[in-house]
Structures
1.
Amino acid sequence: MEFTDIIYQKHHRVPGAAWITINRPQAMNAFTGHTLEEMAQAVEDANNDPKIGVIVITGAGSRAFCAGGDVRWLAQIQREGEWGRQRFDPHAGIENILKPVIARVDGYAVGGGNHLAYFCDFTIACAEHARFGQIGPRVGSPAAGYIVSYLTWVVGAKKAREIWMLTRQYDAQEAYRIGLINSVVPHEKLDEEVDRWCEELMTKSPSCLRILKASFRDLYEPLRQRSRRDWVQEFAPDFFRSGEADEGKDAFLEKRQPDFRRYPRLPGRYAPPAQ
């Protein structure tokens, strides 16, 4: 299997461990649809290999684990009217396979990189470099549905709303304190700690781990019924026509603060999906 956006290594460092490294350091390991497709292929290959028992997701270098979706790619699919129509999996299949997945975070895990990390079964972070946070409302990127609400099971409802709505960033120690990650270690101990977790998981009953992961996965299945596009069309139907989405992405590319104050704070009322 040949890849351009990722590095895929089986039995890397620990027998039975497969490592998937997002290899776009020039873009802080931000992903495009192509990146996610390659990651999904590697995840599926590891899932189908009976000698692989654990998967590690990481990013190249120490600057970023993953900075989320590549802004230029997101702007392109928005211009082409394809936002929300594409059926790529934002978590590259890690939710649906029943082998444990570890996020190895060295650097920024922000936006899609943050929720990629918190959807992994475990997150191990570098004390010096790791930072976590969401950026959606800051750049006009409308994440919605289970991707958002799942975080309430990770850190609780109050902290989840703070993370998503205020777009603050958290260092590794604070992320550990609020339950966003499982372990924080010095940079020189990061790989050693990941190896230790991989080795420990490889000593456990694979059938029991499979049953456990399926049980946890079933918790949020009802939340997956509506797509991001459904949420936007129902609760902010003029979002892409109003210029609000463009303002966020343009400001990011122009290295300035976006001006969202000029957009009206319209009334809204939640309605549950039709049964």
Note: Residues 6-188 form a domain with the 2-enoyl-CoA Hydratase; Chain A, domain 1 fold (CATH 3.90.226.10).
2.
Amino acid sequence: MTDDDTTVADLRKRVADFVRARDWNQFHDPKNLSASIAIEAAELMEHFQWVHSDRLGEIREDPAAMAAVAEELADILAFALSFANAMGIDISSTLVAKLEKNEQKYPADKYYGRFQ
């Protein structure tokens, strides 16, 4: 499976099947899932803690470090997909709507190359 040949629906189903096979739906309520997303995001941040910005390339060049970072991102995505399943949120339409809102809030001609 790659990004080029996998849909969001495929990933949601795979996560749902994984959770269902372990009877974890009882634990996967929105509160627990939102906390899990935050916890996993903190674990991702740990890989960059105390690393100067000019040395971030070293992480990209280190296969073990990249594998650990990718695994944390996968944990975040798995919990986010499970959260969407639990809440009945359509990820694609929600993301597109948010991007459209941000396009209005941050027009490219005013924010190109800057964040404020």
Note: The mean pLDDT is 96.
3.
Amino acid sequence: MVSNLTFLAATTTLDRLQKIPKEFWLKAGGAVAAVIIIFIIIQKVLKINKFVLGGVVFVGGGLMWFNWVYHRTEPKFLTPIVDRIAPFFPSAGAYETKQTTMPGDSTKKK
């Protein structure tokens, strides 16, 4: 008789799903929504004129690159390249350094 009642004590799949925290379901739903949105965006981007898309990517990449050079927040693998290029562009600390010197003071003393 005991073996016939064991199925009543077994947890159902619905019970196990209800025990999963709501945060998990929010994150899982967000991930599914993100995949759908990315797929829709990719389809829209593929319909854009390639010349315009290239221009937007070039300008956006250039802005990101110069921001990295100015603030020196580039990824570690790009640091050797940025080290060589950075002296030719302004940097975030250069303005403060220049402001600490008095007008008329030259860097070369006679």
Note: The two ends are 107 Å apart (CA to CA).
